[in-house]
Write a structure and sequence with these properties.
The structure holds 2 protein chains of 2 kinds. Chain A is an alpha+beta fold. Chain A has 4 helices and 6 strands; from the N terminus they run E-E-E-E-E-E-H-H-H-H. In chain A, strands 5-4-3-2-6 form a 5-stranded antiparallel β-sheet. The radius of gyration of chain A is 22 Å and the shape is elongated. Chain B is an alpha+beta fold. Chain B has a 3-stranded antiparallel β-sheet. In chain B, strands 5-4-6 form a 3-stranded antiparallel β-sheet, covered by helices on one side. In chain B, strand 4 and strand 5 form a beta hairpin. The chains are: A alpha+beta, B alpha+beta. At the A-B interface, strand 1 and strand 5 of A face strand 5 and strand 7 of B.
């Protein structure tokens, strides 16, 4: 297994739990084996120490010096276009999907059920057709 | 007689208190010497108690013949700056009492002291009441002695998080797939 996501200065991370859950932040320094000093001015994460367990490291890295100030982080963040990359990523899309599913009303869930049934019906029909054609060829 | 012993417990995150006390002023001594201590305790009540505990040990002043002049919580001046903190302490083990010097890395001094209490309990089974913090000091990086602190003195620090155990993984009893601990 080759590691691609490292804890390093400038690594962008997604906060999984706590009051800032759902926001992005940057690792600006490492406190010790379990905690990092993070700051996420663009998403409203105050400069604080967070445990690695609460963070999910992402594939993006911005170029900042150790313990950079807010202005520097903002500039580097915008230069690296982190928000754009984040919103185009699969992780972000899955989070939005989960949120959407959690916010559905009973009627919405009924609609989803029916649409799924219709879609699967079409798929099953096509699969049966393909199998029949293959049988006939034999 | 029944004596109720109040012992300190390092509940939650400890706070730093500046406590100043002195003997009661008398006719002979109108301005007794003031004694200041840096006490790390969970709350003000425990801080006052700890102050008198040390006063009794260090001077002939008890709570009954002394007065508290000042007590206030000291919040960290730079709570977002990482510090290397050296703690000199004295603790009772099962077979004797020993001095120790320990180092921690933290963003607040009180946070490091809290870490120290937790660490002492874990590594030496020392209870809070048997630990006496003698001195706490922020030390410059080149004066650090402990390898577990020195290893973080690297401006280009870089390490992966191998074998990640997701805390959320254990919420469900049954799962369709085996969990992955990679990244």
């Amino acid at each position: 297994m080759v590691f691609t996501r490292f804890v390093e200065i400038g690594r962008v991370a997604y906060i999984m739990e706590g009051p800032d859950a759902g926001k992005l932040c940057v690792i600006i320094d490492v406190i010790d084996q379990k905690k990092a000093l993070v700051h996420g001015p663009v998403h409203g994460v105050q400069r604080q120490g967070l445990q690695f367990q609460r963070l999910s490291l992402l594939d993006y890295k911005i170029k900042i010096p150790r313990s950079a100030r807010e202005k520097t982080i903002r500039k580097a963040w915008e230069k690296a276009e982190v928000d754009k990359k984040w919103e185009g990523s699969g992780f972000y899309k899955r989070i939005q999907l989960r949120k959407k599913r959690a916010s559905l009303s009973d009627f919405d869930r009924f609609k989803v059920k029916n649409l799924k049934y219709q879609r699967n019906r079409i798929i099953r029909g096509k699969v049966k057709q393909i199998k029949r054609e293959q049988q006939q060829k034999k | 007689t029944l004596r109720v012993y109040t012992i300190m417990k390092a509940k939650g995150d400890l706070k730093e208190f500046k406590v100043i006390g002195r003997r009661f002023p008398t006719e002979k001594n109108k301005n007794p010497t003031l004694y200041r201590m840096r006490i790390f305790a969970p709350d003000e009540v425990a801080a006052k108690s700890r102050f008198w505990y040390f006063m009794k040990k260090l001077r002939k002043i008890k709570k009954t013949n002394g007065q508290l002049v000042y007590i206030a919580e000291i919040t960290d001046k730079h709570p977002t700056r990482i510090k290397n903190i050296g703690i000199w302490l004295r603790y009772d083990s099962r077979s004797g009492t020993h001095n120790m010097y320990r180092e921690y890395r933290d963003i607040t001094v009180a946070g490091a002291v809290t870490q120290c209490y937790r660490d002492m309990a874990a590594r030496h089974r020392a209870r809070t009441s048997t630990i006496q913090i003698i001195k706490v000091e922020c030390i410059p990086a080149k004066k650090c002695r402990r390898p577990h602190v020195i290893q973080f003195h690297n401006s280009k620090i870089r390490f992966p998080l191998p074998h990640r155990v997701c805390r959320g993984h254990f919420k469900k009893i049954f799962a369709p797939r085996r969990p992955t601990a990679f990244q």
